[in-house]
Design brief:
By secondary structure, the protein is mainly α. Helices cover 79% and strands 0% of the residues.
Length: 72
Amino acid sequence: MPVLLVFVQALMVWLWGVNVYVFLNTRIPYAKVFELEHNHLTHHEIWKVVANNLFALQHLTSCKANAWKEKQ
């Protein structure tokens, strides 16, 4: 169940990146709409965070599976 929660969280952050990407491609100034400062994240940075988290999740899951196989 914790793996599912992490996956759902990663999906939510990825969709946030899609939202920022759409705002940028439609030329809507989302930083002004949401009153963000100039140091907000771009969609590339958001997707890097998601990719790193999913890689870590995959690595931890495979390590846990290997430990479970060795235990049997």
